[in-house]
Write a structure and sequence with these properties.
The protein is an alpha+beta fold and about 375 residues long. It is built from 10 helices and 12 strands. Strands 2-1-5-4-3 form a 5-stranded antiparallel β-sheet.
């Protein structure tokens, strides 16, 4: 053994992460470091005997996913890191990140090596953060819609009274009504600017992509929106796929795309109207439909809907201000996820927005580490 080989073996043995080398032709491990015992609770020297049982502990949803990448590795096509879960009866799943390495030695033997890191703490922290952000963003949208509606009503009443009431000379009533009208209008603007700022801030942050069950992730904001039906004044329903469908998502950004599309549906659907979200599997993709029976979109406006500061922008049915940026940002974020967004609408009959994104194992392109809302 060369001096350098001995150095790297010593380094691997000292690592807190599982380091391994697997002989593809012989179908056996030829090296596993001491972390195997501490991290995977295995028995030193019995790694090959214990490997089948270890693989049986893989989460059922991760087995085909890992097999997909193993086949690529066997062909020498290395990919980025892969995250999988190991199940423990009565305990939370453990998350592991696998960084693979492929090599062919001078004798022609093909070796697959790698590092297996326990990332459970980081994943659980991320899941809790995503859960909090999803609930927060949905709640903000509900409160925004409800408060804006109330302020708009006060503004309209003030305008009506200003036109109808004959105030006596010297009365401060006209001045007070103008103050009430202006304050209400400014309050609506401030609320919408707060929501828009939240969306813009999220869109301008780094893209943090994880492989997630789309239905399970989006159920959180959908539940929140459904519980807010009384405030929203609409009939809101949603349906999820019967089986898990996985996609590579930045959960926070993608959740805000969904909330933005639902908020737009509320904005252009009369009170007591219907808004529905459907999440369905497609061939190699996940499809998300946001459907309403509102006023629809004029045909002449539809080609410009997804442009920045679009000329297709118009106020909502309760006078809500539209910046013309929301749908453009939705399109950018969906495209960052290698997907596309489209709309079908008939004026007076409602609209259907469709988002389609590839399933996790079907994404061939690399998602950039950082993308900015100003790009595209």
């Amino acid at each position: 053994m060369s001096e350098f080989a001995a150095f790297f073996i010593d380094q691997a043995e000292a690592s807190a992460h599982v380091q391994f080398v697997y002989d593809l032709a012989a179908r056996r491990l030829v090296f596993v470091n001491a972390a195997y015992q501490a991290v995977l609770h295995g028995t030193p020297g019995r790694e090959n005997e214990e490997l089948p049982a270890l693989l049986q502990r893989l989460h059922p949803d991760d087995r085909a996913y890992l097999a997909h990448y193993c086949e690529k590795w066997r062909q020498g096509r290395m990919s980025d890191e892969v995250e999988v879960r190991l199940q423990h009866p009565g305990q939370p799943d453990q998350w592991f990140c696998l960084t693979p390495h492929y090599q062919q030695d001078p004798a022609g033997r093909v070796l697959l090596g790698g590092t297996l890191r326990n990332v459970s703490v980081m994943k659980h922290y991320q899941e809790n953060a995503d859960l909090f952000n999803s609930r927060k963003n949905a709640t903000l949208e509900i409160l925004s819609h409800d408060l804006s509606g109330n302020f708009i009503m006060v503004q309209q009443i003030a305008e009506f009274l200003g036109e109808e009431v004959d105030a006596p000379a010297g009365s401060r009533i006209p001045e007070l009504l103008r103050i009430l009208e202006t304050t209400s209008r400014d309050s609506v603007k401030m609320i919408r600017e707060l929501i828009n700022l939240e969306f813009l801030t999220s869109a301008n942050s780094d893209l943090k992509v994880n492989r997630v069950d789309v239905g399970a992730i989006l159920q959180v904001p959908l539940d929140q929106l459904q519980s807010g039906q009384r405030l929203l004044g609409h009939h809101f329903t949603y349906s999820l796929p019967p089986e898990p469908i996985y996609a590579n998502l930045d959960v926070n950004k993608f959740t805000q795309v969904l909330i933005n599309l639902v908020a737009n549906a509320f904005k252009f659907t009369p009170v007591e109207g219907h808004v529905a979200v459907r999440i369905e599997p497609g061939p190699g993709c996940v499809r998300i439909y946001v459907v309403d029976d509102g006023i629809g979109i004029p045909l002449a406006m539809q080609p410009y809907l997804f442009e920045r500061f679009t000329k297709a922008r118009r106020p909502g049915l309760q006078g809500e201000v539209t910046t013309g940026l929301g749908l453009a940002l939705c399109k950018i974020i969906v495209e960052w996820h290698h997907g596309y967004i489209s709309v079908e609408s008939i004026e007076g009959q409602g609209s259907t927005f469709t988002v389609e994104i590839p399933r996790a194992e079907d994404v061939g392109a690399h998602v950039p580490a950082k993308v900015m809302a100003a790009e595209g």
